[in-house]
Protein 1
Amino acid sequence: MPTSTGSCLEPRVGCSPEQAPERPFACASDEHGTSVPRRPRVLYLVTEDWYFTSHRLPTARLARDLGWEVVVATNLDRHADAIRAEGFRPVHVPSLRRPGGPLRQAARLIRLIRLYRREAPDLVHHIALVPAVFGAAAALAAGTRRSVATLTGLGFAFASDRPRARLLRMVLRPVLRLLLSRPGSHVVFQNADDRDLFDRLKLVPPDRSHLIRGSGVDIVRFPSMPEPGGTVTAIFVGRFLRDKGVAEVAEAARLLRAQGAPVRIVLVGKPDSRSPGSLTEADIRAWERENLLEWWGHRSDIADVWRGGHIALLPSYRGEGLPKSLLEAASCGRPMIATDVPGCREIVVPSKTGFLVPPRDAAALADAIARLAADGALRRRMGEDARRSVERDFCDAVIQQQTRVLYEAIMTA
């Protein structure tokens, strides 16, 4: 497992192309026709461009600073210019999140195989479970030798006990075992629960299973900050998906209002029209009309959101990787209330950085909110502990150092 050799409070780790280890890569020709070594090329496969810019820029910057050429294959919508501005080359790939039958799935795979053959990357990095499956199959067919899959949570297939999820697991297990255990393939888990599950199922060889906890957080952009004055405000930040527990937030707000608890409940984010499990704007507006909560809309200035908030909420009942919304809140010194599920319990230490409550339990969520709302000293102590945990284990410097160790081990193998 890659381990940190530095601290989040130290300068960021990087190296120039001259410092990067020499490796045997394919050659190109200069303007005089002389054969010269080609820069290593890494290709990131991500479902959506907004997700790449919000979660994966530090990792891609690391590859760029190592002297590598960076290609980003994703569904290009509104962030292509931001990707180019980093010195990366974006390539449009229709979203892998959209449902489709066997013919559409086959067409997606063929498109990826052609992309991998054309780009001939020295390393492909697949982000999330669906890109990991399609990308690993494409890499196998295209002859791409080195691959990394970062599993940002295991989602419906592994988190649910519904018959459809059990059937999907039965199909996925042999497929994942075949694709993720081939030579040159490595898997990064964001929490220990997911890694332990794959170990028990023998889906990934132990020497190619790695734990890197989350995608990091910029502790300068998200500084520790004092609590605001006024009514205690508990905030949910994220996509409005049912399995993120948004409905439970609304129900907890209803219970708190019935108790007369002086707490504001706020939602920050928006519905996800591409997800069948998304709530609608009408759902949110209905809760607003009941005066249960406030909707602050989609925000990109999340640090400013936490300047106006006291408590972070994430009552998810899906398997999370390691939620960035909680990392950012913890970096700002905010205590957290989340559910006792994989990913959330990686950062929420009960009675130290926050509280864990059972999934789908609005009453327990309301009780935890009321307890923190009534105790300012407890909130401040938990917030300070949360900030220290981010500085020690979760910030960009630590995560990128661990990623760099992994990348260099793979490229020199």
Protein 2
Amino acid sequence: MNPLLYLVAAIVPVGYQLAALAATLRFALRRKGEPGRTAGVSVLKPVRGLDEDFEEAIASHARQDHPEFEILFGVHTMDDEAVPAIRRLIETNPDVAIRLIHSTRQTPNAKAGTLIDLAREARYPLLLMNDSDVTVPQDYLRRVAAPLIEDAAIGLVTCVYRAISSSVAGKWEAFGIATDFIPSTLVAPMVGVKEFGLGSTICFRREDLEAAGGFEAVAEYIADDYQLAKRILATGKRAHLSEVVVETHLSDPSMASVWRHQVRWARTIRVSRGDGYVGLPVTHAGVWMAAFLAMGQPFPAIACWAARSAMALAAGVALRHWPAVGLCWLAPLWDVWAFVMWVAGWAGNIVEWRGVRYRLTRDGRLERAE
């Protein structure tokens, strides 16, 4: 086979990496404008269990410099391990409107059920939902809410995130999030993907939520964040990616738990965005690199490695995820793992979530697996 044909084949994975590099650099170089007008924000936080660093994560929400906000925590049982930490937060921040709400609503997606109850208790026109383990900067609410106040065409605001972990397995997963998942999110708008909203932050107007069918519309789906974003944007609004980077703590202590999490993630993407899932191997430059080396073609392999490493380096800098900066040259190894996860994503419809086994339907609904 003509070596030029191998170089042509390398254009596909290398081209994606360069596009992701450009998108990541554009995000990193965005200027932070000073937010103008403000509006009241209700922060909705469904909670189940005590995540590592949970107290610091929720305390960061209470330290916001926004003039008018409230934090609503929702639990399904008052015996939840997180309840004492929430009560301490309330006691130590008497000047902040913080409420603990017992949600009794039962839905296939328990998180969505809690959000239904929290939204009904919320008093402000802007609603913000994020995961319970998310730590945020002090200007988080002002910056995230500002686009919704300033532009009526924007239907939701979301944030990218960096992940940290105290376990070796968790650090591996965090490396992949920084060098693979987040760059794919940044490049998505460049290829026409508009339906995105990350669980790390989704902020929207109450009226837009109601026009999209409320949280009730996503209560049967596993990817509640994606499904909610899809419905809000279907009303004619657009998504806005904030310049704010938040931080989340991964609690997976072992490679087995990372495996289960990644398989659930892969199958969730498959049933939510099947068209995009089919094309994911294009992004796995490390697999292409290995294939070129196996065929005795070092130059295309080097091109894949160089483009992949450069993109991983840029992502690490943009997210301030310093392990990714130092280990960017190992990003192709993550691609091999990600390709295995991609294959596993096709291998079944069963996922494990919060210790419960579910079967996924073709459109992403949850059914309890016996």
Protein 3
Amino acid sequence: MTNHIQSIQRELKNRDLDAVLITTEVNQRYACGFPFTDGFVLVAREKAWLITDSRYIEAARGSVSSDVEVLLFDNAHPKIGILKGLLHDGLKLAAEDRRLSHAEWLGYERLLNMGFVAAGDLFENLRASKDEEELRSMVSAQRISERALEETLQIIRPGMTEKEVAAELVYRMLKHGSEGNSFDPIVVTGKNTSKPHGVPGDSILQEGDFLTMDFGCLKNGYCSDMTRTVAVGHASEEMQNIYGIVLDAQLAGIAAARSGIPGREIDEAARKVIRDAGYGEWFGHGFGHSLGLEIHEAPACNPREKRLMPEGAVVSAEPGIYLPGKFGVRIEDVMILHPDGAEVITQAEKSELKIVGS
């Protein structure tokens, strides 16, 4: 399992911190590779501990690396008591201020009789750049999603509902190795395609309509994300034109994408194409977002993002045009940012509007 203990320890030293208490599942998984603790992960400058209960103790001891000591809590040995035994007065202890509620933050401070140092950005910054093992998991998740799409496209027919198409995608991702959805799939048709985050319902696919499918899966805890818009039966000239504009915008954004520049520059390269075509007001969301253990991570590629994109960031490329009450088009790939450009890991075809169910 992916382990980032040493990276966290280096960051503790850089920030002059002694330890960090990790209470959220996603950051616990990032730290030690084990996702289910119902307890704590504590990382100090030289040591690390995973504190869990009897449901997970065997799996944890059999999977985490030797640089993480696994401790069992139970009724006789409460997890707060074990944690207090690992801490000492004067310790500069960090916690996830961006994840804990105000009540949780104060509650832990009271129980431990120790103040916290806010360090939520520690994990945000570390998780922004993916290592090779993380990238392999994300590529694997992407291949599963693409295989599910390829098979689903073969069975789409007029008369199916949005829910039925969504169910086919989910089933086929699980069949090919998914651990679950990286988010609830967005499958919409007809006028519903103008809703960027529409929810699959009972609307029926009809000839001459768009069908937008935005979905992804998990592999080793890491997300995939992709969107394809297709036409059912046939497509009008206007549908073909809007699809072409969105594709050109996506390709422009990908061509501009690299690490070391603000995310808003990548967004603007794509947005300009749509704006110049006269549809600027109908592209309301950002060009893309980082993803990894979560489907939305930082930094992003949107008009407000001033931060420099880090090398190794995995970012979506998903411009769209949405005409209310009519239809919408979105095309989404995922790319890895390097200093000299972007490496697109999505392989599903998109070069022209695909006609299905004819």
